[in-house]
């Protein structure tokens, strides 16, 4: 944790040349403005830096474009990817006339969620442990022109390359669909890449734990440690940045699309979460799976509002190609300590009360982590405040249930359009404490409908040609 004076001393002592001011746009993408370190002084942390916000999707109009980047010195880290020594600092967005937080700034939303938790008296810290997954590819081509629509993916690990011609020869080490969980090299071809990703993230201040190949061919996961909501969301942004930068350095490309490959596993971002109060875990108790009554109420809130918060936790049209009933996808609005197709799972083997938590399994890494974490926290808080009973756990084998039993279990939306419609109906719980605002909700709904849902609905799909061209 650094102060402004510590930052200035570090710049001087280490002869840092540039300061990269970073912020997250509503879509969840990092943006940046690079300043010569010579102009960074105490006033920078008092007055901020003015910038034009009119080009950021979902933000200001051209006639009111001025905004303020306010650096948060506690979030600084050295960026190892540039030739010149560069310090990066996450920023909050302020209104220039009042210097009040800009209500559409995602990081501000997460700060308000944390403040609301504290003011409620329920707890003082909400902790998230996200698990983002990703795919690596050697070559990616796509086109969306009117007369050429489609995509093509390639990676050496893919089974489709078992008969490919390579200059050095084909080794035959390829991973079939759903066959990638934990094989050692040479089947796992990305050991060194993942190790470098982990090392770089650690150097940038992220507490790392592990890495491994995931179930899908060329699919991977890096493990990072849980942290309070703001720090955790900041770390997700570093995670995604490092993965894409290191992949690029190796001549590869990384994607956090939830479902880039049909027939293989999708990419999720399971989110472990718990609430703490006065340094003690609130979720440890004597109820189901060692949880407290408050934890069960939190689960009740998440399940009740899951269809609405899907609009933030699974915000892409591609997200719902992963959330398909009948597979391991966590589409069932239930909780369980065993069933991985339940929306909420409780990890059982946690001997310490500090480890008692729930795992929300439906989010994916296409989300904006500040919005997604805030939405889940607000849903859980609503469950605690209104004592929402989550019902009985779903410990039966989901695949062994009769059609009648299965019909009684509600499920997540099947499309982004359905999730957006649910958010439009159910968002009062997000407005508490002014965490989300009507303006943020309305802007999000409008953007998703006009910029993402409608274009995907209107664009012919290559599969439609295979189905209907010759009818």
Task: Count the E strands.
Answer: 18
Spell out the helices and strands N to C: HEEHEEEEHEEEHEEEHEEEHEEEHHHHHH
Global structural class? alpha+beta
Give the biggest sheet.
Answer: 10 strands, mixed
- Helix coverage percent of residues? 25-40%
**Rg on CA atoms, Å:** 23 Å
Q: How many helical elements?
A: 12
Layout of strands and helices, then pairs:
Layout: H1 4-13, E1 18-24, E2 30-36, H2 42-47, E3 49-52, E4 66-71, E5 77-79, E6 86-94, H3 106-120, E7 125-137, E8 139-145, E9 148-154, H4 191-203, E10 208-213, E11 219-224, E12 227-228, H5 229-249, E13 253-255, E14 269-277, E15 280-281, H6 293-313, E16 332-336, E17 342-345, E18 358-360, H7 369-385, H8 403-407, H9 416-425, H10 428-431, H11 438-458, H12 462-468
Parallel strand pairs: 1-6, 16-17
Antiparallel strand pairs: 1-2, 3-4, 4-6, 5-6, 7-11, 7-12, 7-13, 7-14, 8-9, 10-11, 14-15, 14-18, 17-18
Helix pairs in contact: 3-7, 4-5, 5-7, 6-7, 6-9, 9-11
């Amino acid at each position: 944790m650094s102060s402004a004076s510590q930052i200035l001393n570090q710049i001087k002592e280490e002869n840092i040349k540039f300061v990269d001011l970073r912020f997250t746009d509503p879509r969840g993408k990092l943006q940046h403005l690079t300043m010569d370190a010579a102009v960074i002084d105490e006033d920078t942390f008092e007055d901020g830096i003015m910038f034009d916000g009119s080009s950021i999707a979902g933000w200001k109009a051209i006639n009111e474009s001025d905004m303020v980047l306010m650096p948060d010195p506690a979030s600084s880290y050295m960026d190892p990817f540039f030739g010149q020594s560069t310090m990066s600092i996450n920023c909050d967005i302020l209104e220039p006339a009042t210097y009040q937080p800009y209500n559409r700034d995602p990081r501000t939303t997460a700060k308000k969620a944390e403040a609301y938790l504290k003011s409620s008296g329920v707890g003082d810290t909400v902790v998230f442990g996200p698990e983002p997954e990703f795919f690596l590819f050697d070559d990616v081509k796509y086109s969306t022109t009117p007369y050429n629509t489609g995509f093509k993916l390639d990676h050496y690990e893919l089974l489709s390359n078992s008969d490919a011609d390579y200059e050095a020869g084909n080794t035959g080490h390829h991973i079939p669909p759903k066959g990638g969980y934990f094989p050692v090299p040479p089947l796992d071809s990305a050991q060194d890449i993942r190790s470098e990703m982990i090392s770089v993230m650690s150097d940038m201040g992220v507490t790392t734990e592990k890495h491994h190949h995931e179930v899908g061919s060329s699919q991977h996961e890096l493990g990072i440690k849980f942290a309070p909501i703001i720090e955790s969301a900041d770390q997700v942004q570093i995670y995604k940045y490092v993965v894409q930068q290191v992949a690029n350095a190796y001549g590869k490309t990384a994607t956090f699309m939830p479902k880039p490959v049909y027939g293989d596993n999708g990419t999720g971002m399971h989110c472990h979460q718990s609430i703490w109060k006065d340094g003690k875990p609130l979720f440890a108790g004597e109820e189901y799976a060692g949880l407290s009554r408050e934890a069960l109420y939190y689960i009740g809130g998440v399940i009740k509002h899951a269809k609405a918060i899907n609009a933030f936790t699974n915000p892409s049209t591609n997200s719902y190609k992963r959330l398909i009933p009948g597979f391991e996808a966590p589409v069932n609005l239930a909780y369980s300590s065993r069933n991985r197709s339940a929306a909420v799972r409780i990890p059982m083997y946690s001997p310490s009360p500090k480890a008692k938590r729930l795992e929300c399994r439906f989010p994916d890494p296409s989300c904006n982590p500040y919005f997604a974490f805030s939405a889940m926290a607000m849903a859980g808080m609503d469950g605690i405040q209104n004592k929402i009973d989550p019902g009985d756990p779903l410990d039966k084998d989901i695949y062994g249930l009769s059609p009648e039993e299965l019909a009684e279990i509600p499920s997540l939306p099947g499309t982004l359009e359905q999730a957006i419609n649910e958010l439009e109906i159910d968002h009062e719980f997000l407005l508490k404490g002014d965490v989300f605002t009507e303006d943020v909700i309305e802007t999000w709904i409008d953007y998703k409908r006009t910029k993402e849902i409608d274009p995907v609905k209107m664009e012919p799909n290559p599969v439609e040609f295979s189905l209907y061209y010759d009818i």
